[in-house]
Amino acid sequence: FIFNCLSSINSFILKNETEAASDYLTKFSRLIRMVLTNSNKTFITLEDELVMLKLYLDMERLRFKDSFDYSITFTNSIDAGSVFVPPLLLQPFAENAIWHGLMHKEGQRHLDIALSIEGKILTCMITDNGVGRSRSAMLKSN
Q: When comparing pLDDT for 80 and 136, which is higher?
């Protein structure tokens, strides 16, 4: 991930896209700082987790020229500052949806992250309108 980010920044610089490079670098530095700060914690607030996730998703959107959009919604009332989760819980699932579903799709691409809570159970549903698992596996094998 870090290598890909630095390569993207370098690409923006080489293409003389200084505003994009600066924006990407700012988001990257904020994300790395949060990851390092939270890496020694067992749990962080859902609020902090979502800030990191949004930074990651915004960076991927920049990297791929806004070729997808995303939404993060709460299906019921959640106090994100009072719910605790392991750090970087959601990012790998979002990354997987982007890389294995959305990037193989033509046309409009969308990633939807819906969170809900029932009692002490937090549910996160990550869906995309990508090509699907079987098509992605076939493309990977080729």
A: 80
* Pair of tokens at residue 54: 């949004």
Burial of 69-94, coded b for 16+ CB within 10 Å and e otherwise, reads ebebeeeeeeebeebebebbbbbeeb
How do strand 110-118 and strand 121-128 relate by DSSP bridges?
A: antiparallel
Task: Order across the sheet with 69-74: list the strands.
Answer: 69-74, 110-118, 121-128
Q: Dihedral sign, CA of 112, 67, 51, 45?
A: positive
Q: What is the DSSP string of 4-73?
A: HHHHHHHHHHHTT-HHHHHHHHHHHHHHHHHHHHHTT-S-EEHHHHHHHHHHHHHHHHHHTTT--EEEEE
**Integer Cα distance of 29 and 71 in angstroms:** 23
How sure is the predictor about 113, in pLDDT bands with cuts at 50, 70 and 90?
very high
